[in-house]
Amino acid sequence: MFQPALFARPRTAMTAAALAAAMLLPGCGSMAPQYVRPPLPVAAGYAAPAASATAATPTAALPEWRAYFAAPALQALIDEALAQNRDLRIAALRVEQVRAAYGIERAARLPLLAAQASGQRQQVPADLSLTRHEMITSQYQAGIGVSAWEIDLWGRLASLRDAALQDYLASDAARRAITMALITHVAEGYFDLREIDQRIALARRTLATRQESYRIYSRRVAVGSTSRLNLTQVETLLLQAQALTSQLEQERERKRHALQLLVGSATALTALDAAGQATGSAANPVASRAAGVDVGLADALPALAPGLPSALLERRADIVAAEHQLQSANASIGAARAAFFPQVSLTAALGTASAELDGLFASGSRSWTFAPSITLPLFDGDRRRQNLSLAEARRDSAIANYEKTIQGAFRDVADALSAQAWLSQQLAIAERALQVQRERARLSQLRYDSGAAAFLDVLDAQRDLLSAEQQLIQLRRALLGAGIALYSALGGDPVVAAPPLAAISHLPHSRP
């Protein structure tokens, strides 16, 4: 390894000047095609249902996730997931790997300065010596230098550096996409548990009511005031409530295990389990029914304005990552084009040499080497041309992937808007249907008590009432899910922004 240097001797002045000019000569710039963002492959607006009033809003400022998911228990779960989730940790480590790769490419443009020292003693036989006498020679050298430093005249190394930088930014955007996905998945899991807890609470209240009905009818059968057929019908309702409660308890365990995997810790779910147990222990089933269905999903999410599809380009991390990948592929074309031009490299050294160790730094022991080289392959089996074709094909593939990502994001937003609009209508219908079913159950019981109807009418009314109550809970949960989906589809705001470009210049010495 060698280092070019300036020399004081007059006969080397021109060489020194040429060397300095070569070192300071800037490259002619990247030979990559000028990057132009592809046009949006989607419509200018979302085709949301007419019921969605937010679809026409031109701008959309999304709240930070803590403002959107305001429930303290949910925020605690998300915080734990951001600290413990293994998928997010893997994504962060992948960013570190790509960051280091960028640092390597950035350092490749700079000469590698190294110091070296060597010593050699050699015995020369008489028949190989010019003096025809056996002799022992010594040689000692010390100096600094660079070896085969490529002067980036055509921007090949600059293009590789730019491609590595875009890869780094793409990986960081992918990490932010995973972060946003994790936040929304935890929110989904949280509301899933809240929903199932309320359905279990409703099933338990129903079970308690039907157990009491079974006790009353058993006494009536014992005293002969009602038929055993009515008792079997009451028992059918009781068994239905028992089966539903068991099924819901099993489903809650499954959903809890899924949420625990996302969060990465079981301790964070303790408070949520306690809240679920408190919800399920209703002291007054009759009063609970009279007050309606308290689904416990009152964690209302703020309304969101989707804005225009063009806003997704800057906000959705997966689109940002796809665009950085496209820019990386575009920069790689510049490196492939530069390979068609001569490669200029420089080897140089400045130091001291002597036949005696004690004369290594004596006067007149200075030595230097200056060895520039130019290489241009004349025949490579069409390798460079095929490498250029490969880079262009990868660029075209990246364009298609970028457009596909935008189209997928457009669909996600449109689906979420549609779900919000139609689920709102379904929820209003379900609330009215529950009122009707509750009144039907009351009237059926009155008709049976007065002897005007068979108990089968009461049985059917009670079954339909329980089904309507469960359906209302599920619809309210689905509407919350649509709000979560819309927040995620619009890109969210995980507050895990990519480092500014000014900070990239400090890599790899500082962490992003």
Would you state the CATH class of the domain at 52-110 and 159-341 and 401-504? Mainly Alpha
> What is the number of beta strands?
4
What class do helices, strands and sheet pairing give?
A: alpha+beta
How much helix, percentage-wise, in residues? 55-70%
Gyration radius (Cα, Å) is 38 Å
**Please, what is the average pLDDT?**
82
Question: How far apart lie the N and C ends?
Answer: 32 Å
CATH level 3 topology of the domain at 52-110 and 159-341 and 401-504 = Outer membrane efflux proteins (OEP)
What's the CATH architecture of the domain at 52-110 and 159-341 and 401-504? Up-down Bundle
**What fraction of the residues are assigned to beta strands by DSSP?**
5-15%
Strand order of the largest sheet: 1-2-3-4
The CATH superfamily of the domain at 52-110 and 159-341 and 401-504 turns out to be: Outer membrane efflux proteins (OEP)
Question: Could you list the spans in which at least 5 consecutive residues all have pLDDT below 50?
Answer: 1-27, 50-56, 282-296, 497-512
Morphology call: elongated
Number of helices: 13
